[in-house]
Structure formats: C-alpha cells, structure tokens
Amino acid sequence: MNKNNKLISAALLALGLMASCSSGLAPVAKDAVVPTVVTEQTEFDTDDPAIWIHPTDPSQSLILGTDKEVGGGLYLYNLAGKIVKKVTGLERPNNVDIAYSLDINGKKVDIAIATERKAHKIRVYSLPDLTPIDNGGISIFEGETGEGERDGMGISIYTKKDSLGSSIYAIVGRKTGPSGSYLWQYKITAGADGIAKGEVVRKFGTYSGKKEIEAIAVDNELGYVYYSDETVGVRKYYADPEKKDDTELAFFAQQDVKSDHEGIAIYKTTDSTGYILLSNQQNNSFVVYPREGNIGNANSYTKLADIPVSAIECDGAEATSLNLGGKFPKGMLVAMSNGKVFHYYDWNLIQERIDKGEGK
What we know:
The chain has about 350 residues and is mostly beta strands. It has helices spanning about 5-25, 345-355, and strands at about 35-40, 45-50, 60-65, 70-75, 85-90, 95-105, 105-115, 120-125, 130, 140, 150-160, 165-175, 185-190, 195-205, 215-220, 225-230, 235-240, 250, 260-270, 275-280, 285-290, 305-310, 315-320, 330-335, 340-345.
C-alpha cells in the first residue's frame, strides 16, 4: 500500500469509528477495502450512483449520483471523482439509473432517469449534458392515496432489444405500497415534441411489510430484476413485462445480512456469468452471490463472500466490468458512503477478496 492509500485508509478508519459511535453501526473493519477514488462532496446526502459509459472512449465515462434531500439534485463526476456538472433544486431525488439510445425523432439519446420522491415524479435527463427532457417530470403511482404510496424511491431500467430496435422500461419502487403491486413498470418513450413520457405497463412485486423496498437492479442480458425487501431478503422476477409472468423466481440473502438489505450491483464477467453484490448496510460490507445462480439451479444463490469496505452505511451501488483505463482496468464498484460522497473501488481489489471467499 502506498503512502497516499495509507493516509486514505487511516482517515476512513477514523471516520468509520466515529460514525459507529454515533449511530450504533459496526465500525469500518481494519482490513476493509480502501477506495481507489473518493468523490467530491455533495451539499446534503448522497444515496445512489449509476455509471454512464462513454460511447467511444471508456476512460471518459462518468458517474451519476443523487443528493437525497429537498433542494438536492443529480451530480456528474469524472473518474477522478471531480464534479463536472450538476442539477439541483429537486424535491428529494432518491435513486437513478441510465438507459442508452432513447429514440427522439430519429436521434438516439442516452438518458438518466431519477425518482423525485416528494414531487411524486420520475425525472428524465439527456446525457452527458444533464439536460431535462421531461417537461418537469412524469407523475408516478397516480391514483394511490395511502401515506408514502406515491413517494418514488428505487428505480432501475430494463432495455428490451428486438428486430425493430429497443424499448426502455423503468421499474420504480416507493416508500410503501401493497404486496403484489409494490413496483410499477413504465414504458419510456419520447413524443414528436421531444418530451419523454411514461406509460404504466405492469404492477408487481411481493412486499413483506417489514420496512421498505428501495434498491432495484436489472440484469438486462439475463432478463431479471432484483430488489431488496429491506431486513428480509432479495427477490427476483422477470424484467420483461411482455412475458406477463409475475412469478417470484427466487427469494435469497435471507440469513446473510446484519439488518438492511440495500444497494444491488451486478458485475458481468460474460453475457451470462458474474456476480451480484448486495450492500450489507449496517455491517459496512458487500455480500457476493453468483450472477448465474448455483450450478444446476439459476434461481438458487449461495454466498460467495462478504467483503468489508470503507464505505459507511452504503445505500446505493453500481458496478461495471468494462475497462475504464487508468485505475480501473477491469471496471469498478461504485458505492455510496456517509460523508456526502461516493467511493470508487478498482474491481481488482474486490475480486481478490471474492477469490479468497472472505467472510463466507
């Protein structure tokens, strides 16, 4: 470990010890993975990241993150963790995800979609300019009347490709809602005026009623959506609404997490293999599962590792296996951390711990 990494490690360890004393959390472990990069701070409270891959030069890719508070917003960071653009003044933006090639009058536009929790909307921005293209937002959970039932929280995007092109669907979670229709899925399109709009195409998702559902992740190639039923486990469904099959395919991680099941990140080693990483929030660690499921049973998951990280009380997370150049030749894991920041971890550091079966 070089001198700079030692200084970062010492500072993060001290911060983790202070946080644990004040909140009852487990302290950052002495052997926790040290982030390769820590971003500049937001104004309020970071929550969820997404990774936008540059179309021609992956080393110019950007990280998008939410600042979760009334008056907060969306922040774009470069791979050095510097803020390069931001949109503020939103009504508690919660989670964010990215889709590529939305058709706007024949032009393919990359987009970010975020939940604006207290406005009861999802917001759509073009990338990488971070320009709103939604005329103020798309209303969500319309007709729901219970307290918190329109408060959008989690979001993940499924892109279905076929011979005619691709269709973009946003799967949205909320603060609370009925079991069986907790998640609503919206088809995202753009009109002739260039404004993004959303149409409800599906309502699904078992809910335990224990806490809430926030973290959602889609495995686009395999066609699955995963979500964290906090304090209970991770549930798996088909992502494609056209299947018209809302069968729960798997319910795992029930015994592997200290308290809250939080951010879910998917790292892909091939089109069908890799890892599912789950934030073990109160343990300051990530539990790792095989993306493809157990051998012979794609809907059964055995823990491969539980890796301590320096991120404190991590909510949202995202991963990519693409070579981003420089410090991230095999991609990265991005994790929210207390302290108004996101951590970037060189994937090689995570892979070393998986290979050791750490915390298994």
